[in-house]
Amino acid sequence: MSSATLVSVQEYLATSYRPDRDFVDGELQERNLGELEHSLLQTAVAAWFWMRQKEWNVLPMVEQRVQVAPTRFRVPDVTVLRSDQPLGPIITTPPLILIEILSKDDSLRSMRERVDDYLNFGVKHVWILDPASKRAYVCSQTGFQEPEQRILVVPNTPIRLVLSELFDQVKRS
Prior knowledge:
The structure is a single chain. By secondary structure, this protein is an alpha+beta fold. Strand 10 (135-140) and strand 11 form a beta hairpin. The model has no long low-confidence stretch (mean pLDDT 92). The strands form 3 sheets. The chain has a 6-stranded mixed beta sheet, with helices on both faces. A 5-stranded antiparallel beta sheet has the order 1-3-2-6-5, covered by helices on one side. Strands 12-13 form a two-stranded antiparallel ribbon. The protein has a single domain, classed as tt1808, chain A (Alpha-Beta Complex). It has helices spanning 9-14, 36-50, 53-56, 112-121, 163-172, and strands at 2-6, 22-24, 27-29, 58-62, 66-69, 72-74, 78-82, 97-101, 125-130, 135-140, 143-145, 151-153, 160-162. Helix 2 crosses helix 5 (163-172).
């Protein structure tokens, strides 16, 4: 879903959009969101990290602008920063984790450009969650793979997102 509206970086940064939009090389791009399953899962993921932020030394945020290149800004569903990462109105250094949640009109194929932007920016952990299939994917330059034992992890940290527990929380909502 993208509109043909071309704007400058300065105009994009000075404007509030509802909902916020990605900015890719002068083009404003709408994001698929607003559905119940998407919203519930986004809230559950953010809460999962929020409840463990001190233990894991992280700061989770929802729908935070991230500048992935000079003329590219993305608005991931959930951004997880290291607690010592510099903060500003826009994130300009690679977050620890970026998480996208598929909406009913999204597909893994449609997420490729977005994921590539994140990986090229230097984000080491990019995850996609699908509320419809209750599956998750770890993203890399070579593709998307489901995590072993249905647990998303950040190696050499205590960070673990257990998919069965996460999806059970959403189901109870």
